[in-house]
Fold this protein.
Amino acid sequence: MTASLREIKVYTTFPHRCSYLDNEEATTLFVDPRQTLSTELYTQLSLLGFRRSGDHVYRPHCANCNACIASRVRVDQFVPSRTQRRISRRNSDLRLEITESIADDEAYDLYRYYIEARHADGDMYPPARDQYDSFLNDGLGCATYYRLYEGSRLVAVTVADRMLDGLAAIYTFFDPDQPKRSLGTEAILLQIREAQAMGLPFVYLGYWIDGCRKMSYKANYAPLELFVDGQWQQQKTEQQSGPSTDAIIDLLAPGNRHHGLDEG
């Protein structure tokens, strides 16, 4: 049975080491995984700053840090920069395939190589097949898998969820031996083009994290909107002290009738 927004329960994790900022502890707020989420509910949660990882829908809920701020690109106003146009031309020879799964060895082998080459210092190292399957599954039944091929060789995979108001960028992995292609940038440009073609207004890029160099690339996709003080606002995104997200916490406080979520 699908829950309504007012019936959804959320829980918090114990504090744990932050994956993005040194010397910080993180706490995560996540939706009860036993509850079924429709695409409509998933969209409503995304509007409140949540995103998906595998079967879990979550958002940061840290006591002493508000650096992680949900971000999205307004695609109807997006104009690629000169560099982004050059990247698109450079990758015009790639062939796009859209599939319903990436449970095959071809995709996993590319993922494994990508993690080993680019993220050996991260939480996903060493790569494992079960972790790959649980992280990149179609947990809510709305995922699309975009594959880019150079001839017959798979060079990039992008996972995106289709919501009512846009695409949610879940994860991208690519051939690390082709830096001149800027495949990470091409993957975001691909999702923007796909959202435009579908008539969807947004691409959700996950969290823009103040002080995290790995997340600073999101500021390159303008106009970028950030979820600040309980609403989406177009922002300048220089890496500086982030705006307060106390209003987001207020939205998720127990008993607040605006959001309808019960924290367990």
